[in-house]
Amino acid sequence: MPSLTYRIAVVADSDTRWKWGALTARRIARPDARTDDPRPGSRTGSRAGTPDAASDAAPDITGFALRGRATPTARQLAETGTGLGTPREVTGAEFLRAVRDEGYDVVVLALVGGTVQAVLHGLAGMALRRRPVTVTGYVGVVYEKLADGLLLRHGADVVLANSPYDARRFRAVYEGVGADPSAVVEAALPFLGGAPYRPAPGRDTVVFAAQPSVPASRADRLYLLRRLAGHARLHPERDVVLKLRSKPGEHTTHIEELPYQKLARGMPLPPNLRLAYGHMGAVLDRTDLLVTVSSTAALESLHRGVPTAVLTDLGVREALGNHHFIGSGLLTSWDRLDTGHRPEPDPDWLADQGVGDAPSFEAARARVEELLKQDELPPVAPYYTPSTAPGYLPGVLARHRLDAPPGTEPRGVRGALRTAVRETARGAYRHGVQRMAPLIRRLGDL
Predict the structure, then answer these.
(1) Is the separation of the CB atoms in 223 and 229 below 8 Å?
(2) How far apart are CA 184 and CA 290, in angstroms?
(3) Is the CB of residue 183 less than 8 Å from the CB of residue 159?
(4) 231: Cβ–Cβ under 8 A, 6 or more apart, which residues?
(5) Among 403, 425, 400, which Cα is nearest to 97's?
(6) Where are the alpha helices (DSSP H) in 192-333?
(7) Are the C-beta atoms of residues 106 and 368 closer than 8 Å to each other?
(8) Where are the strands (E) in 26-101, listed by range?
(9) What is the DSSP letter of 154?
(10) Region of residue 202 (phi > 0: left; psi between -120 and 50: alpha; otherwise: beta)
(11) What's the rounded Cα separation, in Å, for the pair 279 and 207?
């Protein structure tokens, strides 16, 4: 039976969440939406509203970038390779107004948990003739704040779990606090895909996938950089790549106060070690060993069958996130990698993580279409309310405030002036958060 035709809005607060949200929307909207090569110029690299090789018409998806600390730059958006147009930058209030005025059937909330909760409460307080179906989830490996993040997302119609393992955990949390677990739907990371790994004659490439906030300390990051450089010196025939997430001054889902590229400036690097940006899928196309502390890139790599290693050098700790890989068979050290060791992943662990098989969004699509066919959707009902969490919810909503309720915007010359001042203030705030605050914190450590 053909899928329904409907309009989808995706709102994201960082580049990685935009990637997840946009690709999730594509997969929910269209059964044949491919995610195996979503880079610009690939078969899935079309803009919304134009034909592509996979379908007669691309899904009707509108993107919104929530204005804030991690609002992505044009370069970051281009590297996500979603195949959609540039998202419209908005405040929370402006997004709710767009939902009210532009008639979306489905809203994908690719946001941090507290912001998801604020938007859900905002939707609950709006007098909409028919509210949209709300979908949310996680960008990758969920290794911290499981209960906190899940309960902040409760109230969405669909909470996507990226694997059987996550689906069990999510339902257990909701059931354990007496919340309705029916919104949890098992799906997959929408960007898993790409060509299966094939060794190429004469190619020997090791890629270290850097993370913005793991590890956090200068000493630990310098240690990893030195070990990477040492590996390159031990193997001069090998192409060693430090894959970076963002450039200095840019921010992603997590704040990066000590960028590797800055740490590398004061360190002599061997000629076969280079720093690289770009779409992870393109990097994995020519990778023979992916090394990381705990990046979701490991799942992308494993899905393709690329040899993958998760480092234990700094310990196996919840703070690092590599505890998620216990039982995977991937945990190892630079000492072992230097001598040629290649970890072998455990197949049962891979299956439980939703890695290896073709990613399926059939259940998510069916749930959305089932909700859309209902004459009337039930009211938005988050677990957190003024009665269930009177000492927590007000603070969450205050931190993720929507600036102004829809319909109360200032008008006329005074309103235009106030808007211009507010935009200037936001620009100054973002500059302070992204550029000056990390510098001040580093100076304080001297």
Answers:
(1) no
(2) 31
(3) yes
(4) 206, 238, 240, 334, 337, 338
(5) 403
(6) 218-234, 260-265, 280-284, 297-304
(7) yes
(8) 60-66, 88-90
(9) B
(10) left
(11) 13
Classify residue 216 by its DSSP letter. -
Q: Report the C-alpha gap between 349 and 343 in whole angstroms.
A: 14
Beta bridge partners of 241: 207, 274
Residue 390 in contact with residue 53, Cβ under 8 Å? no
Q: Please choose, from the candidates 353, 312, 331, the residue with its C-alpha nearest in 3D space to the C-alpha of residue 142.
A: 353
Token pair 């110029």 in the structure block, residue: 41
Q: Which residue has the tokens 């102004």?
A: 404
Q: Residues 224, 231: contact at Cβ < 8 Å?
A: no
For the record, the structure tokens of 32 come out as: 């044949």
Question: Mean pLDDT for each consecutive 10-residue tract of the chain (446 residues)?
Answer: 72 91 89 45 32 45 85 67 80 94 96 95 92 96 93 98 96 98 96 93 96 92 97 98 74 64 90 92 96 95 97 97 97 98 97 86 95 95 96 91 51 43 44 47 44
The DSSP bridge partners found for residue 206 are 240, 289
What confidence score (pLDDT) does residue 75 get?
Answer: 63
Query: Token pair for residue 248?
Result: 């200095």
Number of other CB atoms surrounding residue 303 within 10 Å = 27
Sign of CA dihedral 266, 272, 276, 281: negative
pLDDT at 426: 47
Residues 6+ apart with CB under 8 A from 126: 96, 99, 100, 406
Kindly report the CA angle at 261 between 293 and 305, in degrees rounded to 5?
40
| Cα separation, 84 vs 50, whole angstroms | 10
Look-up of token digits 């020997």: 204
* Beta-bridge mates of residue 154: 156
* Straight-line distance from the first to the last Cα atom of the chain, in angstroms, rounded to the nearest whole number: 64
How far is the C-alpha of 350 from the C-alpha of 62, rounded, in Å? 34
Q: How far apart are CA 204 and CA 301, in angstroms?
A: 16
Q: Evaluate if pTM is beyond 0.85.
A: no
The three-class DSSP label of residue 204 is coil
What is the pLDDT at residue 335? 98
Using CA of residue 205, residue 210, residue 216, residue 221, what is the dihedral sign? Answer: positive
